[in-house]
Amino acid sequence: MAPFYLGAFVVFLLGLKGKRKEYLIWAERALYSGFFLQVFVFFLLLFGGKILILFDPKKTSWNLSLILVGLYLFLKGKLKLKGFGGIIGLFAFILTVLASFPGSLDIKQLALHPVWSSLHVLLCFIGIGGFSLAFSAGLIYLLEEGKIKNKKLGSSKLLPSLDALDRLNQYGLFIGFFSFTPGIILGGLWALLVLKALPLEEPKVLFSVLSWFYYGLLMWGRLSGWRGKRVARLSVIGFAILMVSYFGVNFLVGGHPSHFIQTRLR
Amino acid sequence: MREIGLLGLNHKTAPLEIRERLAFVNLEELKKGLSLLKEERTLKEALILSTCNRVELYAVSPQLSDVLLFGVLEKLKGVSSGDIASFCYFKVGKEAVRHLFLVASSLDSMVIGEPQILGQLKEAYEVALKAGTVGFFLHRLFQRAFFVGKRVRRETGIGDGAISVSYVAVELAKKIFGDLENKRILIVGAGEMCELAARHFHSHGVREIMVANRTWQRGVELASKIGGKPIPFEEVKERFKEVDIILSSTGASQPLIFKEDVKKALKYRKGRPLFIIDLAVPRDVEPEVNQLDGVFLYDIDDLKQVAQEHAINRLNEAERARELVEEEVGKFIRWYRSLEVVPTIKDLREWAETLRKKEMERLLRGLSLDEKERHKVELLSKRLMNKFLHPLVVFLKAQAWDEDSKKEYSELIRCVFGLEDQ
Lengths: 266, 422
Description:
Number of domains of chain B: 3
Number of helices of chain B: 16
Structural class of chain B: alpha/beta
Largest interface: A-B, 26 and 27 residues
Low-confidence stretches of chain A: 103-107
Shape of chain A: globular
Radius of gyration of chain A: 19 Å
Oligomer: heterodimer
Radius of gyration of chain B: 32 Å
Strand content of chain B: 5-15%
Largest sheet of chain B: 6 strands, parallel
């Protein structure tokens, strides 16, 4: 699926460069193809009994790309988002490529409390998927806003309106926050169940809680009427924090919180 | 292909007074015209396209000629060919197909890329279909033309970007707000420019239009014309908090809207974008307003520049659109020519079918088979026949686009299989 996602982005760029709107349609088609292929692989793994591979912390990005593209395709019709698929293609490509690094999950760890841990991981994935969507919409919002302001519309005419991007950002934040919150709570309960305490000294847990507070603040702003450039900017910053808490910590410190729990139990 | 053609005139070839004389002004007149065409023995099929910029008579006839179509037009509109001949064009075969495809793609329109022509073509086709003057060829030709029109709009930017200042303003508003239905607009001034732009916004369904003018009465007049609400001029700055679009065009010699005024309002807007259109010369809005976050200020020159870019873009896109039209003309011609080998293919199939049936009869007389077995043998013979014929049919169709090969190979096949006697 990575070549499809990359293809979607490349065709999207070519379309913007040459102001060819049919290229943007092809970019969307490439994104669809990549997504359906990924869903197919997902079911192959599911029915092949290899589902736990999907919970490997170093495969997190694979799931994220699936959820991100899925959420985008779900919201596309609702928000009349034409020609935005190429951007999502870029993120999906990066995420699927990150997933190709070797994994390190001891599957036994997840078997500790399969329902709790699976739900926790799934909800967190959907949450980050939503935040990624909010981030991509925010990023394009900022770029497009600059172009309209400076009267250099160029190829931005082919992209969705600022309002559509703002609403995509809003949906992304809502989906993200309302999945991430129970995901974090479940994770906490899981830790409490096993350790009788919250492992706040674990960097990943700490960053997750920090991210949750940040997005909570952003949600409060959204609900009290914030919108436009301000929210777009804050979504981009929020996503950077989230990336540090997930990928940064994963690659620097290593491991899923379950590793940590396992270590503590020993 | 020489039996398909058209006679017509348009905004490029004829002045308005000539177009007026030939136009079919309403549906009744068009229907009447088509019923006259139906009685015309020399025409197999016919269709009339009448818009404010063109009148065209499409026809299919074995004796198609300009004289024939001028005669028909004379009967329909009572104008002599001598009076109108110099304003008309007559196109046959490939030229006629190309012309129709160009019309459907709005490449022959006064404003290149305008979307109305495709609807007008569809309407003309529907009326002719109901009148019973459209047959196999025109049906196929017009269906293809609709497809080409849509394809050109979909695959090129020929219809993208407004080319008039007030439409550019509406388009920019849509770029910022998406849908305009829930938006509020404040009009400052009651001049002609304001009225025109306000009408465009009104037709795009903005929720509320407020009109503020120094002279209260003129403000009230404009508000009633465009379905808006008059507000006192002194309240203008207060309204910045709530509106989404401000359209200003007053005759003031100094700016009326300052950065500080807008900045104050932004505190209450919570990041909601504000689009300010300044159509006045000298300008009504201080240019520094554009520096504020979430505020988009466009003056008349900015709008003109965008319109110009769009016009240039449309011209560039027209080149690509013409290439697509040419490709589609080629496809249609190939399809049309393939029809000319159809009689040979039909005769060949009939010959093979007769042979198959004869041989089946002979075979089945000597065998005692039940119904199921008979059916199986029947099926086998049909399959074999189709498999033998398939390469021949494909070959003949492939030769159809070349006039000489088509004739030569059709004759060869007729000769080899003895189809001449059929």
